[in-house]
């Protein structure tokens, strides 16, 4: 042992970046009102789904003329649904700087096989030059790179007079960061992120311009049933009133409603953002005074306040192999100690740590965590040096 083991422990050790920690005070007893054993198309079932949509709109401040739907397969399903349904009408600029953005590039170029595509990418920790976007085209991007900890600072790069649509994957940003709705036409997220809901359900939000595209453009490829949003050239608006295409879990919907009710009780979006920002500050203050660690995001204004990605910068651990070994040892040690669960970097990202700091995390738990990170690092470094 090369450091004194901390005495205080986080009350909750869940720091996973998805599914994320449940809200403070969470209890399964709060789900007793779920419409279990009832059809999601029954009046009570549809009412629950519509309530989830209405509360989402109210808390996020989504404009009244934007449509909100609950769809299958988490954020991935929602974003795939949007791309397969609406891309191909004009050229496409796609920006990628982490794993999910790269997935969207693959879908656009290799699955949909669209040709008039420009790809702007950047390595983990950096943001592409968003100023290169040509808004005569559709523009596809991720607001917050969950696997890189790099986010778009604002929507200022998007003009109000754009000709194409903006497609924004906003998972791990919605409920924690300021989304400029006037700049966004297609927005998707999963409630398993910032609100800590149960997985497998996605949210799809469409602007009036996006609806116009869906009703005026028919893709050249066959459309899977789960992606079909139109009937006879018109948008199936029942989807956006709670009539889902497939069968949702009413237990997961009740869980989401519990999280939304909690968010309302805090004070809504402003309070959620404040909690995420306060959590991020705990980690930022620690990084500033800790020589062995730094943010993966190189530019401060692009650092995520939810999916905080860290790299090991100790000069005595200089090789990627040694850094990977130390990071793996830290994550493994703290999991065995029951102090921090699931804090290893994403599998495709550079070796390091990823600590969730969204609104369901308590700042006090992060304050208790950082001494453990120092302790685990000191021990891991000693093993590498041995």
Automatic annotation (TrEMBL):
<dbReference type="GO" id="GO:0004760">
    <property type="term" value="F:L-serine-pyruvate transaminase activity"/>
</dbReference>
<keyword id="KW-0963">Cytoplasm</keyword>
<dbReference type="InterPro" id="IPR022278">
    <property type="entry name" value="Pser_aminoTfrase"/>
</dbReference>
<keyword id="KW-0808">Transferase</keyword>
<dbReference type="GO" id="GO:0019265">
    <property type="term" value="P:glycine biosynthetic process, by transamination of glyoxylate"/>
</dbReference>
<keyword id="KW-0663">Pyridoxal phosphate</keyword>
<dbReference type="InterPro" id="IPR015421">
    <property type="entry name" value="PyrdxlP-dep_Trfase_major"/>
</dbReference>
<protein>
    <recommendedName>
        <fullName>phosphoserine transaminase</fullName>
        <ecNumber>2.6.1.52</ecNumber>
    </recommendedName>
</protein>
<dbReference type="InterPro" id="IPR006271">
    <property type="entry name" value="Pser_aminoTfrase_methanosarc"/>
</dbReference>
<keyword id="KW-0028">Amino-acid biosynthesis</keyword>
<dbReference type="GO" id="GO:0004648">
    <property type="term" value="F:O-phospho-L-serine:2-oxoglutarate aminotransferase activity"/>
</dbReference>
<feature type="domain" description="Aminotransferase class V">
    <location>
        <begin position="139"/>
        <end position="345"/>
    </location>
</feature>
<dbReference type="InterPro" id="IPR015422">
    <property type="entry name" value="PyrdxlP-dep_Trfase_small"/>
</dbReference>
<keyword id="KW-0664">Pyridoxine biosynthesis</keyword>
<dbReference type="GO" id="GO:0008453">
    <property type="term" value="F:alanine-glyoxylate transaminase activity"/>
</dbReference>
<comment type="pathway">
    <text>Amino-acid biosynthesis; L-serine biosynthesis; L-serine from 3-phospho-D-glycerate: step 2/3.</text>
</comment>
<dbReference type="GO" id="GO:0008615">
    <property type="term" value="P:pyridoxine biosynthetic process"/>
</dbReference>
<dbReference type="InterPro" id="IPR000192">
    <property type="entry name" value="Aminotrans_V_dom"/>
</dbReference>
<keyword id="KW-0032">Aminotransferase</keyword>
<keyword id="KW-0718">Serine biosynthesis</keyword>
<dbReference type="Pfam" id="PF00266">
    <property type="entry name" value="Aminotran_5"/>
</dbReference>
<dbReference type="InterPro" id="IPR015424">
    <property type="entry name" value="PyrdxlP-dep_Trfase"/>
</dbReference>
<comment type="similarity">
    <text>Belongs to the class-V pyridoxal-phosphate-dependent aminotransferase family. SerC subfamily.</text>
</comment>
<dbReference type="GO" id="GO:0006564">
    <property type="term" value="P:L-serine biosynthetic process"/>
</dbReference>
């Amino acid at each position: 042992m090369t450091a004194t083991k901390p005495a205080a422990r986080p009350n909750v050790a869940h720091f996973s970046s998805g599914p994320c920690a449940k809200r403070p005070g969470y209890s399964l007893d709060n789900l007793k009102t779920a419409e279990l054993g009832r059809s999601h198309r029954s009046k009570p079932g549809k009412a629950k789904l519509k309530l989830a949509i209405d509360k989402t709109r109210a808390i996020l401040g989504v404009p009244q003329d934007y449509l909100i739907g609950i769809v299958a397969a988490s954020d991935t399903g929602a974003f795939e649904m949007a791309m397969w349904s609406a891309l191909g009408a004009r050229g496409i600029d796609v920006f990628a700087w982490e794993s999910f953005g790269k997935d969207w590039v693959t879908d656009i170029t290799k699955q949909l096989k669209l040709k008039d595509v420009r790809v702007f990418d950047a390595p983990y920790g950096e943001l592409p030059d968003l100023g290169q976007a040509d808004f005569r085209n559709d523009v596809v991007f991720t607001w917050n790179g969950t696997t890189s900890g790099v986010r778009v600072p604002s929507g200022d790069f998007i003009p109000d007079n754009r000709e194409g649509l903006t497609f924004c994957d906003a998972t791990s940003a919605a409920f924690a960061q300021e989304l400029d709705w006037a700049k966004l036409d297609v927005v998707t997220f999963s409630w398993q992120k910032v609100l800590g809901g149960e997985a497998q359900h996605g949210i799809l939000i469409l602007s009036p311009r996006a609806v116009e595209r869906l009703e005026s453009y028919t893709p050249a490829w066959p459309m899977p049933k789960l992606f079909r949003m139109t009937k006879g050239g018109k948008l199936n608006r029942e989807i956006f009133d709670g009539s889902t295409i497939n069968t949702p879990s009413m237990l997961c919907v009740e869980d989401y409603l519990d999280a939304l009710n909690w968010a309302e009780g805090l004070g809504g979006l402003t309070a959620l953002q404040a909690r995420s920002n306060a959590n991020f500050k705990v980690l930022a203050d620690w990084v500033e005074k800790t020589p062995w660690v730094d943010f993966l995001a190189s530019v401060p204004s692009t650092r995520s306040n939810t999916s905080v990605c860290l790299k090991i910068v100790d000069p005595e651990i200089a090789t990627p192999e040694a850094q990977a070994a130390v990071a793996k040892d830290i994550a493994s040690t703290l999991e065995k100690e029951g102090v921090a669960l699931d804090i290893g970097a994403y599998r495709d990202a550079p070796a390091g740590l990823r600590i969730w700091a969204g609104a369901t995390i308590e700042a006090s738990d992060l304050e208790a965590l950082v001494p453990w990170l120092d302790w685990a690092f000191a021990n891991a470094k000693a093993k590498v040096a041995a």
